[in-house]
Amino acid sequence: MPENDEKSPYGDNAEHVLVVKGLRRTFGAVRAVDDVSFTLPPGGSLGIVGESGSGKTTTARIVVGLERADEGEVHVRGRSRTARGRGRAHRLARAREVQMVFQDPLLSLDPRTGVEAALRETLRLHFPDRDHGLRIRELLDQVGLGTRAADALPRQLSGGQRQRVAIARALAVEPAVLVLDEAVAALDVSVQAQILNLLADIREQTSIGYLFITHDLGVVRCVTDDVIVMRHGAVVEAGPTAEVFAGPRHPYTRLLLESVPRPGWDPERIAVARRAL
Ligand SMILES: Nc1ncnc2c1ncn2[C@@H]1O[C@H](COP(=O)(O)OP(=O)(O)OP(=O)(O)O)[C@@H](O)[C@H]1O
């Protein structure tokens, strides 16, 4: 473990894989993230919902380490991620803790690198001494990609297959937390369902915690245990997904739920209903 990491106030055997406390981030006059706190147990799944600009992505980027917080703490497996890293080993160790899957895997996958080669590259970087052949087969199997896909370049794969590759690459480093930022938003509904089922299977097999960033309440209902609702950077409601959906307490949550057409939200209806808030 990196020696310059502070000990977490939550202890070594932290009950949660992820603890986020009091995050704040402003961009000029915009309070993108305003005192956001939440926890994620091992194998748990937390949805962060809110309309565009509510601060979901900035929160996720802070958790991953792509964005810095002005204030607040992020702890993974009981260790602080707030301390700035010294050196390559520290950066790699931090990267292994939290992995992110984006909406468009074409942007995160190297267009010139085949599936197997991409996985091998990641494994070599993080686990130089291991047998990569065996692990690559395991990973392809885990995400339901056949050996035929192993040599394919990203553009030769379907959107769903590409997302499977992105998930396999994230799993390769054995993260504690997987952040999925609108990870199924660009897929057809039937392919969305396949990927969500795959993620549910992986969650059953591992203790990875999921952080689902999405504007799609249908996705949240399907794949999360808990949900937080964000508005203007702040958390307006939080709780078990089933309870929040069955009996939303905050008017904004009620509004969002009432505005749900299938399968996502209708921004126009939200805008009309917001004016009534
Ligand atoms: N790098 C940045 N510079 C300036 N403003 C930013 C930056 N990143 C985010 N913001 C602003 O912070 C607020 C929150 O943005 P954020 O992307 O986190 O929201 P979001 O809920 O993820 O929205 P979306 O669903 O559209 O991605 C917005 O007002 C956005 O314009």
Automatic annotation (TrEMBL):
Name of this protein: ABC-type glutathione transport system ATPase component
A molecular function (GO) term: ATP hydrolysis activity
GO biological process, one term: peptide transport
Domain ABC transporter per the UniProt entry, residue ranges: 18-257
Alphabetic keyword roster: ATP-binding, Nucleotide-binding, Transport
InterPro entries listed in its UniProt record: AAA+_ATPase (IPR003593), ABC_transp_ATP-bind (IPR050319), ABC_transporter-like_ATP-bd (IPR003439), ABC_transporter-like_CS (IPR017871), Oligopep_ABC_C (IPR013563), P-loop_NTPase (IPR027417)
N-terminal signal peptide: none
Pfam families linked to this entry: ABC_tran, oligo_HPY
CDD domains per UniProt: ABC_NikE_OppD_transporters (cd03257)
SMART domains: AAA
PANTHER family: D,D-DIPEPTIDE TRANSPORT ATP-BINDING PROTEIN DDPF-RELATED (PTHR43776:SF7), TRANSPORT ATP-BINDING PROTEIN (PTHR43776)
Similarity remark: Belongs to the ABC transporter superfamily.
